[in-house]
Amino acid sequence: MIIENSLDEVKKRETSLKIIKSIINAHGRDNLYDFTGLSGGFLATTDDLNLLETYVGPAIFEEKLQYLGKVHLGGEKIFPVNRTSSGILATILALVPRNSCVIHFVPELPSHPSILRSCKLKNANYIEFDDISRFHTPQNTSLIIITGATMDHKVIDEEIFEKIIAKAKEKEIPVLVDDASGARLRTAIYKQKKAIELGADLVVTSTDKLMMGPRGGLIGGKTELIDEIKACATKFGLEAQPPTILAMVNGLESYNENNLLNSIEKRNKLIKILKNDFKYFEESPTGVMISENSLKKEIANQNIETTFSPKDLCFLWAMILLKQEHIITIPAVAMPGASATVRFDLASNDALKLDIAILQDKIKNSFKYLLKIATDEEVAKDILFNCE
Amino acid sequence: MIIENSLDEVKKRETSLKIIKSIINAHGRDNLYDFTGLSGGFLATTDDLNLLETYVGPAIFEEKLQYLGKVHLGGEKIFPVNRTSSGILATILALVPRNSCVIHFVPELPSHPSILRSCKLKNANYIEFDDISRFHTPQNTSLIIITGATMDHKVIDEEIFEKIIAKAKEKEIPVLVDDASGARLRTAIYKQKKAIELGADLVVTSTDKLMMGPRGGLIGGKTELIDEIKACATKFGLEAQPPTILAMVNGLESYNENNLLNSIEKRNKLIKILKNDFKYFEESPTGVMISENSLKKEIANQNIETTFSPKDLCFLWAMILLKQEHIITIPAVAMPGASATVRFDLASNDALKLDIAILQDKIKNSFKYLLKIATDEEVAKDILFNCE
Question: How far apart are alpha carbons A372 and A178 in whole angstroms?
Fold first, then answer.
């Protein structure tokens, strides 16, 4: 293992940020291609900015956010948080009594680590399922969490969603839906209902995933629960700050389902041409991706034997894509514990400025280089941690 | 008690934000006077804004922040967090093992509640002192926290600071200094050394306190500790987001000790003229203030008997100041658990646009009205929770 723990992941991310800076300085922002699907941007006018002061900004933008947030998520009240992870932390700290039980249904394991981590702080008994037939709620269950779409964009079946809600209502247990990308993916692409319409009490989404918002989270739901979460969040400093709230307002205003739908057409083209050279690429809802284990198989399929872990191979490829091809993918820049799947999200803004055939070349070239160095630990470490 | 708990405080804050919005809409930003000393603002150029994307922004601003942060705080490495409270949470989650002991020295009790709250999540044994002669460190102490300056701007004695550091070094216990406003107050006004220069391992400051930065926190200190804190913070979503980092960079660049020093002269004028009508106003380092208990005494001194709690009286006065005089003070807009002391901070930007004699009138008029309604619970509730 080269990337062994969270500290290594932070170090790797720091390397990436420095590389990104040097690419922009040397080649300009136009020659950098962000395919993470997470890079929402920060939309603001000069008038907006003049109002961005600690206590004045939120007063102005709060009302707009309430309106737009409710249109987007449903629910009675909206609360903006610093990140989806901090929103999940606030919800668990506020609603889960010590030593009670939290049940989590995820369309496909593994789940996002932020839920288990937050549960540990309340010494809660955390149980997760991806098989509805095994789903049950112990007597002291204080919260049920449903993941609407996983980090790798696996989407929950709407019927299973409704089954869980029915069970929760029967036992009067509140339901939080982690709809980080799902709030758009499930609704725009899969034509499912909003989490709140399906009966959830709370939903949280990431305003930088599949929309032009800032990194941040938006919680919607019942006023009474939101008020409890908000009181807890402001105590620990988990709420979104004024500039983020402003960017959320503008991101929500500019959100348009059609941009997501267009990306599907591009995805179909790309996956078709990639099939000439690769065996294990898969479709994601708005792009193409290759998981840790699939990448290991893809390399084996080229008759290269490597002792590198599947995760390290993903990190390595992501760093080669960044350093040589100026393409940003999630494994290069993610926070610790995020999925290492290499994904090219065609709903990203930067997808508009790169022809599909050129993207194909960049993917092929960087993969060729990955094959070349996939057995050399010294070179690999240099790629992961050296900014030169 | 009218404001009984955190939920009430959140409700009161929401009322204030709506009032602020309606004042700006009806009278313009120029007729609103923010005397919190917390309203830093958001300085940014158009070029800055074009770079504000999730993964690209921090790459650009991170390097500048490292440089400017180290100039401001000292230390080997800087880490920006969403709020000082979230920085304290991250530090305690990262460095305090379960059931160990955290020692906190504060120049004058009560201490800021974020430290105790964070300790509870690790089931840590929390001990606080404001008397150095009682200071001791039990055997399983994992962290010593020193508050450099309290919420009410009471500043630590530098000799006591050094004594605690010496004890910590002897036992090899890391020291975090909560220098929220102290990083500027202690150094610019009291001519003390930076926390790191005095031997602290870590220091955290609020970039919106006594400087033109955004609401947010900045941690500085030893690389090894910062890396641990950062890994923990990014897991829970406690780090500052790109727009905040940008505003921190510009806030640090524009920081100038002389602005703080000028406010002292204004303070001396104001306290002198207030003494004509008030008995219990005190000086703060950069303004004037009246604590909960002093306000209760001030009202009694006018021969008004009220059953309202001292805290409620502060909240009420702050709301009258906002609604009738368009003056923002901390009790009107603070997060739950903050001090209810009514303070007029003359280092605030808006102090520049209000003559001292007019400010005196506004303080007098609003206090007269407070006396009038200080026995009427219905009117008081209306003032605290009604936005009309």
Answer: 40
ipTM: 0.80
| Chain A: closest CA distance from residue B7 (Å) | 6
CA distance B301 to chain A (A): 33
Strands A342-345 and A287-290: antiparallel
Choose the mutation target among A88, A236, A250 for the interface with B, i.e. most B CBs under 10 Å: A236
Residue A41, phi-psi category: left (phi > 0), alpha (psi -120 to 50), beta (remainder): left
Q: Is the pLDDT of residue B260 over 90?
A: no
With CA atoms as reference, the chain A residue closest to B28 would be: A51
Substitution target in A56, A228, A322 with the highest count of B β-carbons within 10 Å is: A56
Give ∠ CA A55-A59-A61 in degrees, rounded to 5. 120
Give the closest-approach CA distance of B263 to chain A in angstroms: 20
Give me the average pLDDT of each 10-residue run along chain A (388 residues). 87 89 86 82 67 65 91 98 98 97 96 94 96 94 97 91 97 97 93 98 94 91 98 96 88 87 90 96 91 96 94 96 96 85 90 92 97 94 89
pLDDT band at B181 (very low <50, low <70, confident <90, very high): very high
Best to test chain A binding among B96, B234, B387 (most A CBs inside 10 Å)? B234
Which residues of chain A lie closer than 8 angstroms to B18, CB-CB? 59, 63
pTM: 0.81
* Sheet bearing B202-206, strands edge to edge: B77-81, B217-221, B202-206, B175-178, B141-147, B101-105, B125-129
Cβ atoms A248, A239 nearer than 8 A: no
Alpha helical stretches, state H, chain A: 6-27, 46-50, 57-73, 84-95, 113-121, 158-171, 182-184, 223-236, 242-254, 257-274, 292-300, 310-325, 330-333, 356-373, 377-385
Q: Does A331 touch chain B (CB under 8 A)?
A: no
CA dihedral A64, A70, A76, A79 (to 10 degrees): -60
> Could you tell me which residue, A45 or B387, shows the higher pLDDT?
B387
Q: Does B356 touch chain A (CB under 8 A)?
A: no
DSSP lists the bridge partners of residue A203 as A177, A220
